[in-house]
Amino acid sequence: MAHLRPIRALGTGALIVVAACGGDAPDRPELPPLAVSSDVPFCQSVAQAVNAYHAEQSAAHPRPADPRYGGTVVVAGGGDFRGGLNALTTGDQTDQETELHLLHVTLTRFAADRTPEPYLAESWTLEDDGSGITFRLRDDVMWHDGQPVTAEDVVFTYRRAMDPATGFLNVGWFQFYDADAVEALDDHTVRFAFTPHAEVMDPFSNMAIMPQHLLGDVPPAEMGGHPFGTDCPVGAGPYVFEAYRPGDQWVLRANPAFPEDLGGRPFLDRYVYRVIPSSSTRAGELAAGGVDVALGLEPVDAEAVAARDGVRLAAFDSRSFSFIGWNPRLPGLSDVRVRRALTMALDREALLETLRGEYGTRVETGVPDFHWAYDPDLQGPPHDPEGARAMLDEAGWTDRDGDGVRENQAGDELRFDLVTNSNTERETIARIMADELGDVGVAFDLQVVDNQTLGARLGNPTNRDFGSFILGFAPDFNINERDFFHSSSDATGYGWSALNDPELDRLLDTLPRIRDRDQARPLWAEYQQRIVELQPYTYLFFSQRLNGLNADLAGVEMDLRGELINVPAWYWNPETN
Amino acid sequence: MRSPLLEIRNLGVEVPVPGGGAAAAVDGVDLSVAHGERVGLVGESGAGKSLTTLALPNLLPPGVRIRPGSSVRLDGRELVGAPTRDLRAVRGKRVALVFQDPTHALNPALTVGSQIREVLLVHRGLRGGEARAETLRLLSEVGLPDPARTAADPPHRLSGGMRQRACIALALAGEPDLLVADEPTTALDVTVQARILDLLVHLSEARGLALLLVSHDLAVVSRTCHRVAVMYAGRVVEKGPVKAVLERPLHPYTRALLAARPRLTGPRTLPAPIAGSIPAPSAWPTGCRFHPRCPDALDRCRREAPPWVGLSPHRATCWLHWEPGGGAS
Amino acid sequence: MLSYAIRRLAVAVVLAFGVATVCFALVWFAPGDERSDLLLSGRGAVVDTGPEPGLVEAYGDWVGSLLRGDLGTSERSGNVARWLLARLPHTLALSVSGLVLAVVFGVGVGVLQAARAGTVLDRLLTLGTVVAYSAPAFWVGILLGGAFIHKPMELGMEPLFPLTGVAPPGGATSLLDYIPYLVLPALTLGIVLGAGIARYTRAAMLEALAQDYVRSARARGLSEMRVLFRHGLRTALLPLISLLGVYLPVLLTGAVFVETVFSRTGIGLAMMEAILGQDLQVLMGGALMFGFAAVVGNLIADLLYGWADPRIGDAVRG
Ligand SMILES: Nc1ncnc2c1ncn2[C@@H]1O[C@H](COP(=O)(O)OP(=O)(O)OP(=O)(O)O)[C@@H](O)[C@H]1O
Ligand SMILES: [Mg+2]
Q: What are the pLDDT digits (tens) for C272-312?
């Protein structure tokens, strides 16, 4: 026993750790029977069925004697899953991961090399011409209420996701899908039909399958507020929903009936997600033993965690990057020279150092260095305030009245709204930016707003109410920036910085259709080069994801694919406990 | 002869003076009360009557203290300097106080009965039904018509006279030997005053209770007490059997008080030329303290404090009656 | 007493109605587009059912849905009433235990100070209460967290209490499970509010102790404890009861900060988040709840006062 680090007696997981010194098999008490309850009519019968099936399966599959089984893990994150755990309606990172890896199942999942491997689908055949794919489903995966998962559920899920009325956020995945793209060939066979395109497999690892027998009658438009998501979400994954305390906790239970081939019953009996908005409080709770995993720490808190005994830091690349967006519809910002000059005036290296220290990577486009399409030879605009000044002069913006802000011939000032949401990191970026760009004669009016307001100001195609903004974004592995930069996206939500550049349009139209990566690579290089030339955004950095972990928690894998990818394989180390 | 119940010797009480220091607001008072005896203490406002009574069980307000060398003996036991615990056993139990203003003497938030029961519990260990019965008995003893109801009432439902009766019942609850009543009727209607005084006399006689009655008014004292002491500016200036003092007052101050008697209801002012009032303790004159107001003041009165004159038990401190060699005029 | 109670109740109902109306008016007359969405949200998900109603109609609808316990729906938080009611018990537990501690601290310290008025102890306590009184709740919370959680950890011990939350992960199995989570937050509120109560109690006690009936009580030979607590404190505390009614909103706003510091998912934290997220529905629902709580608190205080001070009942009757 190197150190006795009992987590305070907070529920089962804690007790075990205290009790289990001396190398004996830890004695982890069994949890009381699952008791999902709800006062919502829809959920009452659902809860009953889930409770009954869980009791039956718990009896049929008692916890194995392996000392890794049992216990609770408490994971703390910054936000509640407001929309619940209905995969058709949610889109934030942690709730999506909870759906994909814990509560629900997907057709395929990403192996460590990011190639798809079987999950609900035991096999698949991609048609040679690339216009369709057929999945063969396992027949031993059950919904948590005991119903079998069938092809009907898959068809239902994808049809709902494609239906604009549902409001599924990633509807862009299905850009190349036929109108009647999904059909069940038999109970356990599904076929998708589409125009050939790149990265066909991507959605199948990202779309959790939802129960048709429960949600089939819910009109797509009512999916959003439906109590299924918050009161009685039923999945088929390794963890079963137990309880939701709004704003506070989500509690999940091990599914004793999860198929052996897919990992079987998870080690940990219980998975608790706690909402703790402040990063430093999450880190403090980790140190105090109140939580076992603290997700999404800010660098300063991560450093404190790294310095402590009994906890460790998991720092790994993530898909999320920060950038400054420009509104190319405005005088000044419509000129590519001005946009380039703005990027050049900003010391992005220093910015990264200040904000993230070692936990981040500079980028020049939305294609990160770990992506297969990344062009290692790409050169971004250098940090060169002098050059920036010259370029602004050349573009016709000079300080004509000596007030420190440049004007054009008509006397319009080079001054823009700078909108961002309240977030320490982004507000710091805004301050540094206003400072450094002020030095070259560009003025900003900072406006800190909440997320929704920010969304409304950027996302309204008829009124793009901003000059510039600071935002973070986490693309899929399948990068497709058509919605952002294509000239046609000027009329759609994400097209806040849409450009009218035929060459870029051509690349954006072509890239998603090329199925062969080797063939696509040179075009991707061209694309990245073009983005650097056009500077629709000033790209800042990719952030590393910083998670704090209790050092006794073993088996944890966190990487680009996510931080909850293998929760069923997490366990409390019987050696150190 | 039996030793007196209460024996005050050379009592001095010092009060703080604005601007610092202390002055003796009570200055060498001698007074005794025998078992069952009723003694009156009379004087104008500011004479030091209240301080004298409060000094007995040391209930003086903060900042006011008994001067060293004072003595207050109860049945021969010294109270000055006694520990608080002993004093608490005296308060209410041996010496009970009734104050001038019955409105404020009762706790407004507690029923009359509960305040009486509290004393019964503390001093006589009575509780429950016993305490309730004794409460009713006490209330009827002081002449309250509906004891049960009065016991359940908060004080504000009683009239002034009833409240004072309740206060007296409270005072009796500890079965004291001495009742000290500081102007018990001043705050009441004239019609009620007489009845309260009658009650006090009655109780004193029925219970063998000694009474020290403080008053402005010689008339009040004359109908209740055996003996009287007249106070002026912190000193007793005349004392004796009530009858003697009233019929043959020795001190000009006593005479002035008597002259003010008829004005039973109006403001009690002294007639000219001794109009005015007692100065503050820090400004007391030398010699006889009454001399600035005394119509007959001699030169000597201004310089020297007067000696006791007259034949015991009726005596006064006044140069007018002084004859070298002693004796009264 | 009964008629007094009924009269107070009637006043409380009118007040509650007033609170609701003020809330409505604030939103209705506020500039911006939020208002219609907010006030019409009680009508269900679909808002565009014909022309926008006038003030009277909108008010009627709104009061109607309020009476049905419907506080509307918010995009961030869903059914607002449900969202807030789920959190209400935690805020109540915090407020009530905080209030109890505040009264115990405040009265204890105040009485001690009055009994020892003018001494060094009195002066030290005065200093302490002034500091605690002017200290922001969140600051006290952070200090307590430091003393009971971080300090023991630095010394290699177990933290004495959980840092955040309201119940053990996975849920409480008995009411006792909630208590460790309540200690520091309630202590924080207790200290902050208790300081005010102590200052009040000291002054009221000094005044009460100068009363004739306190001297009379002493003259009856009662022990100093009896004099202080039964006679002095009892009357000094009567006004405190109604003061507590006034304190209720202070208590609730205190809860906002304390809940934020200790990440307690109560109404206060919900309101804090609603402010940051501009979730007007939740904000208005929370304001309504706080307003109603203040009315109920005052009602309870009035009734207690009438019960504790016999003069009040009589004054109303007579
Ligand atoms: N707490 C006190 N501090 C300072 N001076 C006091 C205090 N109490 C009484 N005195 C002074 O002592 C003197 C005697 O006061 P005391 O109350 O004994 O007079 P009294 O004869 O009872 O008069 P009254 O008829 O007005 O009650 C007065 O001059 C008064 O101002
Ligand atoms: Mg007096």
A: 888 777 777 888 888 888 888 888 888 888 888 777 766 65
Q: Choose the closest CB to A270 out of C164, C166, C170.
A: C170
CA distance A289 to C180: 14
Average pLDDT (A76-93) is 84
- Which among A281, A273, A357 has a CA at the least distance from the CA of A315? A357
C125 shares a domain with C23: no
Q: Is A243 on the interface with C (CB under 8 A)?
A: yes
- Do C245 and C126 share a structural domain? yes
Statement to judge: residues C227 and C171 lie in one domain? yes
Which band of pLDDT confidence, cut at 50, 70 and 90, is reported for residue A577? low
The answer to whether residues C277 and C172 belong to one domain is yes
Which of C74, C95, C115 corresponds to the end of one domain?
A: C74
Q: Which two tokens mark C121?
A: 């102890």
C250 and C118 share a domain? yes
Q: Which CATH entry fits the domain spanning A2-297+551-572: 3.40.190.10, 2.102.10.10, 3.40.50.170, 3.30.450.40? A: 3.40.190.10
Q: Are C94 and C189 part of one and the same domain?
A: yes
Specify which residues B238 forms β-bridges with.
B230, B316
| Contact with chain B for residue C205, Cβ under 8 A | no
**Percent with pLDDT over 90 in chain A:** 68
Contacts of A547 (CB under 8 A, 6+ apart): A293, A294, A295, A296, A297, A313, A314, A315, A558, A563
Q: Which positions in chain C touch B101 (Cβ < 8 Å)?
A: 212
| Strand, coil or helix: B221 | helix
Residues C125 and C175 in one domain: yes
Least confident of A118-127, A405-414, B276-285: B276-285
Q: Where in chain A is the domain with CATH 3.10.105.10?
A: 318-544
Domain with CATH 3.40.190.10 in chain A: 2-297+551-572
Q: How far apart are CA B40 and CA B19, in angstroms?
A: 34
Q: Which domain holds residue C10?
A: 2-74
User: From CA A325, how far away is CA A112, in angstroms rounded?
Assistant: 33
Q: What is the DSSP annotation of A145-191?
A: TSPBP-HHHHHHHHHHHH-GGGT-TTGGGGTTEEEEEEEEEETTEEE
Task: Quick: pLDDT tens for B266-322.
Answer: 455 565 556 778 888 988 999 999 998 888 888 999 999 999 998 888 999 999 888
- Of C74, C102, C137, the residue that ends a domain is C74
Tell whether the model's pLDDT for residue A567 goes beyond 50: yes
User: How many other C-beta atoms lie within 10 A of the C-beta of residue B159?
Assistant: 12
Task: Please indicate, yes or no, whether residues C162 and C177 belong to a single structural domain of this protein.
Answer: yes
Gyration radius of chain A over CA positions: 26
Find the closest chain B residue to C231 by CA distance.
B107
Torsion of CA A184, A186, A190, A196, to 10 degrees: -80
pLDDT for the residue C40: 45
Contact at 8 Å (CB) between A254 and A62?
no
What CATH number should be reported for the domain whose range is A318-544? 3.10.105.10
With pLDDT > 70 as the criterion, what percentage of chain A qualifies? Answer: 95
DSSP A508-534: HHHGGG---HHHHHHHHHHHHHHHHHH
Q: Strands A443-449, A415-421: parallel, antiparallel or unpaired by DSSP?
A: parallel
Q: How far is the CA of B292 from the centre of ligand 2 (A)?
A: 23
Q: Does residue A300 carry a pLDDT above 70?
A: yes
- CB nearest B105 (choices: C212, C222, C311): C212
B18 touches chain C (CB under 8 A): no
Work out how many domains chain C is built from and give that number.
Answer: 2
Digit-coded pLDDT (tens) for C47-72? 334 455 677 887 888 788 888 888 87
CA of B18 to the centre of ligand 1 (A): 14
How far away is chain A from the Cα of C185, in angstroms, using its nearest Cα?
Answer: 15
Q: DSSP class of residue B113? A: H
